[in-house]
Write a structure and sequence with these properties.
21 strands, 12 helices, 3-stranded antiparallel beta sheet, alpha+beta, about 375 residues, single chain, elongated
């Protein structure tokens, strides 16, 4: 919709095809129905890609301020929630309505609820077969997203189309997705509904936000963020007490020698979580009866508690897809395929995945705008 609107307003004749019966369905469910439409801290280093520099050009030429200005022009009230995340005060439908209005201003024709048949290319024109007609154009933009949230109609169609034209695809996998626990760690699923402010780490990546225990494993913003960096077989670590000094339990022993470890933890963490962690640490009795070394080791475990996820909840629960159409075959300035003139790929279909919190929408707006400038 962004690409179509901008191209239309540049005088291009545009047909926007969507097999859904209404546009912007993923926008409507985003941000709890209020659409986290951008992030004021958008920067290239907050995106994952096989080419970490690919997103720099588009993001630099169409920034979050540019989209905010568009939102303001349409009189949509918004607010910053946390960490630079911007949401509509009202409904996500306002963003869809804004994009529809921008498309109308560009004279964009829409074909909603139409299944796409074959797609071909010849004599300098792309051919797309619809149910009742065949359309031809000198340019074709792939903007069908990734397979995350299939109940919304999401599929891997973009990848099939890209491969048809000789473009490579980086292995797609679920991102911003809950992680599942099994084996001995399954006991933590008994904490379903318990949340805590933590630092989650995987490799060099670290995020401080809330973690949530679920009946399947781990979720919450910190876990969704770290899931984009996690690969099967890797551990993740959680610092349950990021504000505590290294020897805080030894200091607690001096201050409250008769207190139990469970009691001390319960003053800082939800009761059920404190009880489970204390049981797993295996230090019964009063703090005064424990050695400093044992308490230091307990503190270390609490600051880097290792979990070994056995998987994720998959594309069904993933907010986005990591991987996608290989950026090596695309121009970072125009999003055009290097070897297929007139073919473009934008948004989630491309191997560019942002952090949680409006970054993926900003990539959609920026990559769509970049392609529209070249159409």
């Amino acid at each position: 919709m962004m690409c179509a609107a901008v191209a239309g307003q540049r005088g291009r004749r545009v047909l926007l095809i969507d097999r859904a019966d209404e546009p912007g369905k993923k926008i409507l469910i985003s941000g709890g129905g209020r659409c986290n439409f951008t992030n004021i801290h958008t920067a290239p280093d907050r995106y994952l890609s096989a080419n970490p520099h690919f997103a720099r050009s588009a993001l630099g030429r169409y920034a979050s301020d540019d989209f905010i200005a568009l939102v303001d022009r349409h009189g949509i009230a918004w607010h910053e929630k946390t960490l630079g995340q911007l949401f509509c005060d009202g409904s996500a439908r306002q963003i869809v309505a804004m994009l529809e209005a921008e498309c109308r201003a560009g004279g964009v024709e829409t074909a909603l609820g139409e299944a796409i048949g074959s797609v071909g290319h010849g004599d300098g024109l792309f051919r797309v077969e619809l149910a009742r007609r065949t359309v031809r154009a000198p340019a074709l933009v792939i903007a069908t997203g990734g397979p995350s949230i299939p109940k919304m109609g999401a599929t891997g169609y973009a990848y099939d189309l890209a491969r048809q034209f000789g473009l490579k695809v980086v292995e797609p996998r679920p991102a911003l997705v809950p992680l599942t626990l099994g084996g001995e760690e399954a006991l933590f699923r008994g904490l379903s509904g318990v949340a805590a402010d933590v630092v989650a780490r995987c490799g060099k990546a670290a995020f401080r936000e809330a973690a949530l225990f679920t009946h399947k494993g781990l979720s919450g913003p910190a876990i969704l963020q770290i899931s984009s960096y996690w690969r099967h077989g890797q551990p993740i670590t959680i610092d349950f007490l990021p504000d505590q000094a290294a020897r805080w339990l030894v200091e607690a022993k001096r201050a409250r020698p008769k207190a139990a470890l469970r009691t001390v933890l319960a003053a800082l963490l939800p009761d059920r979580l404190a009880e489970t962690l204390a049981d797993r640490l295996g230090l019964p009795g009063e703090l005064g009866g424990m050695t400093d070394r044992a308490l230091e080791e307990a503190g270390r475990r609490l600051s880097a508690w290792a979990f070994h996820p056995n998987g994720t909840e998959g594309f069904a629960k993933a907010e986005v897809t990591i991987g996608g159409i290989d950026t090596a075959g695309l121009s970072s300035k125009t999003m055009e395929a290097r070897r297929v003139p007139g073919l473009y790929a934008i948004g989630e279909a491309v191997d560019v995945t942002g952090w949680l919190g409006g970054y993926n929408f900003q990539w959609a707006w920026a990559s769509g705008w970049a392609a529209a400038q070249a159409l």
